[in-house]
Amino acid sequence: MLDRILFPTDFSRYADKTLECGQELIELGVKEVILLHVIEREILEYVDSFAGVSAEDLIRDATKVAEEKLKERTKIVEEMGIKARYVITVGDPVTEIAKVADEENVSAILMGAKGRGMLSTTFLGSVSEGVLRTSKVPVIVTKLKVAEKDGAYYCELALGKMLDRILYATDFSPSSEKLLDYVKGMAGREVVLLHVMEKGEDREEVESKLDSIASQLDRVEKVIAEGKPCKEILRVAKEKGATLIMVGFSGGGIFGSTADCVVRRAEVPVFVGK
């Protein structure tokens, strides 16, 4: 179901270490990775106005450097037994990521982040927010611990393997319902099925809906909570030892959606369904 993924990279160490957690990609069923680097024309034109070097020359030089870096990273993926190729574009990162994802017909977009809610670098901060809103396909945001030892960086996914214990948070919306197909595609995994009740919801009706969903899963624990969705999702994820949070994207204003909040504050990877 996640045969082909798009991996935008700014060549930061967090982006690189996300790639090196290749076993997680294999377990997700990934067969091909398309690496994408976007050269920001606006920045180059800004440099042009001060340095007297044409934007075209800067783009040519930046493309050459990017190609060498992407070749190295493509080799890393291929050594894991996963097909890999790269794409370089020029423009606005959010626009280009959405465009390439559409053109390449990818199953999902993978983006790296560090620590609790701290999206790595300006690129993976502001850009990831835009991608969450514009993407037509799921977005997977990893959460990495990167430790330094003897001058080298080591990658470790927060709280163990990504698919050890999945928290599937549903509000019964269309985006949440679509997520169920992905959850079922991870057959045999432990699943915590969570619904956060809103004011006015009937508990018996909620329980009936959860029972219907649970009947389609193998190893599942149902949880009903009350309160603010983001806060409760994070609380239950921690209490249940979830290693991946799956939540649908419902839109909303800037930083306003539950998915935005969860992505920013979660200690574990987040799979945002569309």
Characterization of this structure:
With 274 residues, this protein is an alpha/beta fold. The chain has two domains: 154 residues, Rossmann fold, CATH 3.40.50; 109 residues, Rossmann fold (3-Layer(aba) Sandwich), CATH 3.40.50.620. The chain is built from ten helices and twelve strands. Helix 5 packs across helix 6. The chain is elongated and about 65 Å long. About 4% of the residues have low confidence.
CATH superfamily of the largest domain: HUPs
In the predicted model, the low-confidence regions spanning at least 5 consecutive residues are 115-124
Percentage beta strand: 25-35%
How are strands sequenced across the largest beta sheet? 3-2-1-4-5-12-11-8-9-10
The secondary structure category is alpha/beta
Helices and strands, in order, run as EHHEHHEHEHEEEEHEHEHEHE
By DSSP, the count of extended strands is 12
Top-tier CATH class of the largest domain: Alpha Beta
Largest sheet: 10 strands, mixed
Distance between the termini: 14 Å
Please name the defining characteristics of this protein.
274 residues; Rossmann fold; alpha/beta
Topology of this structure?
Blueprint: E1 4-8, H1 13-20, H2 22-27, E2 32-39, H3 41-51, H4 55-78, E3 83-90, H5 93-103, E4 108-111, H6 121-134, E5 139-141, E6 144-149, E7 152-157, E8 165-169, H7 174-185, E9 190-197, H8 203-214, E10 219-226, H9 229-239, E11 244-248, H10 258-265, E12 270-273
Parallel strand pairs: 1-2, 1-4, 2-3, 4-5, 8-9, 8-11, 9-10, 11-12
Antiparallel strand pairs: 5-12, 6-7
